[in-house]
Design brief:
With 915 residues, this protein is α/β, with parallel strands linked by helices. It contains 35 helices and 20 strands.
Length: 915
């Protein structure tokens, strides 16, 4: 078999001298000899200091020295700088074997023919050392004096966490057999991956939608600092760990927010990248070196980089590699070849790896083939991993990434180790089981395995075994079990009615968009003595569009480095101000980062026992459309908070055009069952909804607090009315209330509208009465989605309980007796109001803005989509004519009168409001 020679792999090193001629090789050799002597006599630590001093002096003397983005393919921490391993490696290795067995067996048993629910065996098998060094010596539980760490576990490694919980006595064999059978094994069920919503006492962070874990870990570390700097909780001794795959690093989300961690100097954050060189289907960089690529990328982003590539068995070989032939081979060997080596044999490695040069062949000549085969990768060596973790937690000023070289499927045998198909392999053959058992030295006989190959036994030596006692002692010393999620938190004193007065009093003679009505309410909420300091306004780079720049001088923008420059607008009332204790999280042009910040803040009640109330304000088009997967993970993590889709609507944000014209976000939001979606028309509706949301999230009587409220608000100024004297709070919060009951006699129709369309419906009602003798009631629908969910729940209950009286859907009950056809209108596509069609007996017509948006005046755009006031009138007349209640020719007359097909004849809306 031929293995690529690596001739084209020179790009993997920085090439510091490639572009310069060596005009005096003899002098060069003398300098190199001096460095070698320094290392030999004083060690690598002293050599590091001297080299850094020389580079610093070279820069000061204008000597061009390129940035070293990659280093040789060896361990970052030299053997002589490794700390002493503090644990009992023999004991830890012993129960690590039990963990690896139980993790694999759990998946294998769940794949038996009568179950067949799948699972992943190979990820944890290759990462067990990375996790166990952490569990035994670094990961601190919630009872630790410092408050405990947050660990983002790699999703596909979840069987290993379950296996550890089994040894700890937290899970039973029956629980393990409930893996991926969450309904059929209710009470003894384990979710496939880390899903807090499915296992709310166990998992903290959902990670298996790859790329979301890295983002959320970065913003979790930032949120920890935010809590500390704002004086809410001392998090100075808490650390965030994120375990990632090297294939996962191909996700743009995995790399896209690294700069935030560097800029904020988040030395409370460590990424551990499990570099087994494999994606789900094959090599990550078969023709290159993913570790070197990631080293360059992270170092360039401002991170501290630690490579853990080779186990201690390599130390002697590297020490005797005086001419660096071995290092050169390590540098030039491609990842595809490294993968192949671990799927072959010691003899193959000797021939194809060490055999590349006479020097390296001689270097390994004294080793047997078995000894060559047992030269471990660094990610499987307790000493090397411990040294890296210790260096990471001690490093100051930068976040750290540990690039650990492992083998996927390590120890599972030749069918699994380093095979391209290993990720999809979910069960072991009988021979695999026997070989794995033997490799792990487990006291399980062939007869037991042969008795039922689909149900090999789990292994637990009992709670009194010395290994289990040691395991439990280590967790006790580190503050308790992980993963673990807790629910208790500081109670909040919610605002009284006075706080909502600004929303209820309307805008008088002044026009104000619902965005402004919301911002005025937010200002008073932030002043509230009970929750004001807990509110976390989160914005991408559009604060001035939303009017939130008014908060800059008082609340200030959070920046852990403070504001060290002279602001250009310092003399203005609304000057841009940053502060270490700032309240506003300003993520820049970064919706992904904003949602990650939202998630961290919105789960602080569980992660830290200290509630924060995130209020994320953004262009509505760029919320669920751009970051829907993150909101799904936020729902999984049981995030609480408010999501404000500002500048909403397809025709309301006039000049911005297609990519800014939101006609569908309520539909996208409706797919997330943790999101409660509202489209309020007026400030008093917003006040009632926010109040209800706070009570649901943090009120003492709430039974379902783990929700996110999504409100769409607009930038079109209108006269904001006062709250009605008998405001229908229940109707507002449940989704519909009668806004204006007509006092006109005549044929009747019902106009349902939401958000910015409510004034159109009111105008249409007046036109219908004055010009056509039609009586139209106007209903404000604050939530089409919640009405639909309620209606479907009523239908479901009737379906499942046929002997009981059927519950009437809220909208059906609310509109009982409302006569005439219904015309529903919004600034969204027709499918939004169509959500409630089946729950009303009336004839039902929908007007909506289907299709792409475009730039134009509001009046022209609304006439184009036929959602303006006159279009509502014509549609209502058509519905009435259809049933013979009015002159059949009235619709045609109205269409001609209002010049319905003329875009320039539209009059609905105004030109105010910034976009």
């Amino acid at each position: 078999m031929d293995v690529a020679s690596g001739d084209t792999s020179s790009h993997i090193l920085s090439g510091l001298t490639d572009a310069l001629p060596d005009r005096d090789p003899e002098e060069t050799a003398e300098w190199l000899e001096s460095l070698d002597a320094l290392i030999g006599e004083r060690g690598t630590e002293r050599a590091q200091f001297i080299m850094r001093s020389l580079l610093q002096r070279a820069g000061a003397q204008s000597v061009g020295v390129p940035m070293v983005t990659t280093t040789d393919y060896v361990n970052t921490i030299p053997a002589d700088q490794e700390p002493e391993f503090p644990g009992n490696e023999e004991i830890e290795r012993k129960y690590r074997a039990w963990l690896r067995w139980n993790a694999a067996v759990m998946v294998h048993r769940s794949q038996r023919p009568d179950i067949g629910v799948g699972g992943h065996i190979s990820t944890y098998a290759g990462a067990a050392t990375l996790y166990e060094v952490g569990f035994n010596h670094f990961f601190r539980g919630k009872d630790h004096a410092g408050g405990g760490d947050q660990v983002f576990f790699q999703g596909h490694a979840s069987p290993g966490m379950y296996a550890r919980a089994f040894l700890e006595g937290r899970l039973s064999e029956e629980d393990l057999d409930g893996f991926r059978q969450e309904k059929s094994k209710a009470g003894h069920a384990l979710s496939s991956y880390p899903h807090p919503r499915l296992m709310p006492d166990f998992w903290e962070f959902p990670t298996v939608s790859m790329g979301i874990g890295p983002m959320n870990a970065i913003y979790q570390a930032q949120s920890n600092r935010y809590l500390h700097n704002r004086g809410i909780k001392d998090t100075s001794d808490q650390h965030v760990w994120a375990f990632l795959g090297d294939g996962e690093m191909d996700e743009p989300e995995s790399r896209g927010l690294l700069q935030l961690a560097a800029n904020d100097k988040l030395d409370n954050l460590t990424f551990v990248v499990n570099c087994n060189l494999q994606r789900l289907d094959g090599p990550v960089r078969g023709n290159g070196k993913i570790v070197q690529e990631l080293e360059a990328f992270f170092r360039g982003a401002g991170w501290n980089v630690i490579k853990v590539l080779w186990g201690r068995e390599w130390d002697d070989l590297l020490a005797r590699d005086t001419d660096h032939s071995l290092v050169k081979v390590m540098n030039e060997t491609l990842d595809g070849d490294y993968q192949t080596y671990k799927a072959e044999s010691g003899g193959f490695v000797r021939e194809h790896f060490f055999g590349q040069t006479p020097q390296t062949k001689e270097l390994a000549a004294h080793l047997s083939d078995d000894e060559v085969w047992n030269l471990k990768r660094g990610g499987h060596d307790y000493h090397k991993v411990y040294a890296a973790y210790q260096a990471a937690v001690e490093f100051r000023g930068k976040p750290t990434v540990i690039l650990a070289h492992t083998v996927k499927g390590y120890g599972l045998g030749t069918h699994f180790e380093a095979r391209n198909s290993t990720h999809q392999m979910k069960k072991l053959t009988l021979q695999d089981l026997k070989d794995f058992r033997t490799h792990l030295r487990l006291p399980i006989s062939d007869e037991v395995l042969e008795a039922d190959p689909y149900r090999p036994p789990y292994y637990h030596p009992g709670p009194d075994a010395p290994e289990i006692k040691y395991l439990m002692e280590r967790r006790h010393a580190l503050g308790g079990f992980l993963p673990e999620r807790r629910h208790a938190h500081t109670e909040l004193a919610l605002p009284g009615e006075k706080t909502y007065e600004v929303a209820n009093r309307g805008s008088g003679k002044q026009h104000a968009a619902t965005t402004m009505a919301f911002v005025r309410l937010l200002k008073d909420l932030m002043r509230d003595k009970g929750i004001g300091s807990r509110i976390v306004p989160i914005i991408p780079d559009e604060a001035r569009t939303f009017g939130i720049d008014a908060f800059f001088p008082t609340a200030k923008i959070y920046n852990p480095n403070g504001q060290n420059y002279l602001s250009v607008d310092r003399d203005l009332v609304l000057a841009y101000k940053e502060s270490v204790s700032g309240q506003i999280v300003h993520a820049g042009i970064n919706e992904a980062g904003s949602v990650a910040a939202f998630t961290a803040a919105g789960t602080a009640y569980a992660t830290h026992g200290e509630p924060l109330i995130p209020i994320y304000v953004f262009y509505s088009m760029f919320g669920f459309q751009r970051t829907g997967d993150q909101f799904w993970a936020a729902g999984d993590q049981m995030t609480r908070g408010f999501i404000i889709g500002a500048t909403a609507g397809r025709t309301t944000l006039t000049g911005e055009g297609l990519q800014h014209a939101d006609g569908h976000s309520p539909l996208l939001a409706s797919t997330n069952t943790a999101v409660i979606t509202y489209d309020p028309a007026y400030g008093y509706e917003i006040g009632a909804i926010i109040k209800a949301g706070l009570e649901r999230m943090y009120g003492p009587d709430s039974t379902d607090p783990n929700v996110m409220y999504y409100l769409t608000v607009y930038n079109e100024p209108i006269l904001q009315p006062k709250a009605p004297a008998a405001m229908d709070v229940e109707g507002i919060t449940r989704g519909i209330y009668l806004l204006k009951k007509t006092d006109h006699d005549g044929p009747r129709t019902q106009l349902l509208a939401s958000g910015v369309a409510v004034p159109w419906a009111l105008e249409a009602a007046d036109i219908l009465a004055a010009e056509w003798g039609v009586a139209a009631d106007v209903w404000s629908v604050t939530s089409w989605t919640e009405l639909r969910r309620d209606g479907l729940a009523a239908e479901e209950h009737a379906f499942l309980h046929p002997g009981e009286p059927a519950r009437t859907p809220y909208i059906t009950e609310k509109m009982a007796g409302a006569q005439g056809p219904v015309v529903a209108v919004t600034d969204y596509m027709k499918a939004v109001p169509d959500q409630v069609r089946q729950f009303l007996p009336n004839d039902f017509a929908t007007l909506g803005a289907d299709g792409f948006g475009f730039s134009d005046t509001r009046a022209a755009a609304r006439r184009f989509f036929k959602i303006d006031s006159h279009s509502i009138v014509v549609r209502a007349l058509q519905m009435l004519a259809k049933t013979g209640q009015i002159d059949p020719d009235a619709p045609r007359q109205a269409a001609e009168k209002y010049d319905l097909h003329n875009i320039n004849a539209g009059t609905t809306g105004n030109a105010g409001g910034d976009s």
